[in-house]
Records
---
Amino acid sequence: MMNYRIDASDKAGFSKFPDTTDAFLEYTKAMKSNNTPGGFALGHASGDANSWVHWCLWANGGNVVDKDDKVIINSPETERALNYGQTALCEYDSRHCFLE
């Protein structure tokens, strides 16, 4: 489930919520350009510290542990997720961008 403003999305040129990570980046750019940037709760809502970014990890093929409960967070998929997350953050608010 995703909560979002349909009117702001329509104004930004999106008739439905994006269903790919690439489309989501385009969505965030369009929303920001219309002065209606989106965002995620970070650190102040129940469960944030443990789960708010799992969608990004999973969308990039990563996971925290494998089927045998072996920790596998140190992986190319996690690196890809972190890079995607940083790009998304930079698109949202360049004050938080640490990419060179």
---
Amino acid sequence: MANRKTLQVEETIDLNQMNGQSGQVLGWCRGVLPLDERWLWVGFHRVRPTKFVENVSWIKNGQSQRHKPSHVALYDLQRKRCEQEIELEPHGIGVAFSLLPVPDAGDQPGRIRLTISRGRATSL
């Protein structure tokens, strides 16, 4: 985490440890949506085969071959754990490029609706 004023890194957060499932590759991080100082949504997409072997050599060198599917995860930075995950592939979404807040529609004041774009507006 970086200080907004000084731009200095104050804390490094290991999402693998917070996820609670050792031995799984979370995927490529494709979007981050901080809700406040405590809550953070992070979007991941599945690690796919690539012709650039050096880009994924870390997977073969001691890391697990188990890859999580594309998903978004809600992290509690105070408790240091993942509180919720939403798999994207069952909804026809293979890659999430960004996570953006949607203004409150008035139906649930104070809550944030997560919208994931795949070339057009898609809400989960």
